[in-house]
Design goal:
It comes from Notodromas monacha. With 86 residues, the chain is an alpha+beta fold. The chain has helices at 10-14, 44-48, 56-63, 68-71; strands spanning 6-8, 17-18, 21-26, 29-32, 76-80. Helices cover 26% and strands 23% of the residues. It binds protoporphyrin IX containing FE (HEM).
């Protein structure tokens, strides 16, 4: 539920970048896509290119039109904490 949402730093996000633990940031939201991996039409390897980081640009380059918000509704972890130095 909403009460479990957290603010995730870039540093924390980067820790989730192995195939059995994958988080991505997409337009300011953090998603745990670990269980989506096997269902990604573009494959596991492609999705791993965005693992542990803000994958918004990669995502938009390939399929800007994909409705990830409804697809990943259950996978939301929280919000990406804006970093102080960028
Ligand atoms: C294909 C979802 C992230 C690369 C697809 C498709 C969907 C999808 C639904 C099929 C699109 C279609 O057939 O029209 C998602 C979701 C993502 C995600 C929900 C959320 C994290 C990424 C990332 C990459 C990527 C980070 C890295 C580059 C691709 C590629 C294809 C694909 C290469 C195949 C495109 C094609 O064959 O035309 N994805 N994707 N995706 N995705 Fe993703």
């Amino acid at each position: 539920g909403v009460d479990k949402f957290m603010n995730v730093s870039h540093e924390e996000l980067a820790k989730h970048a192995s195939p059995n633990d994958v988080w991505v940031a997409l337009r300011g939201n953090i998603y745990n896509v670990t269980h989506y991996m096997d269902f990604h039409p573009g494959g596991c390897e492609e999705l791993m290119r965005g693992a542990g980081k803000d994958c918004t640009d990669l995502f938009d380059e390939v399929h800007r039109w994909v409705n990830y918000e409804s697809m990943l509704k259950k996978c939301i972890v929280g919000k990406l904490k804006p970093s102080v130095d960028n």
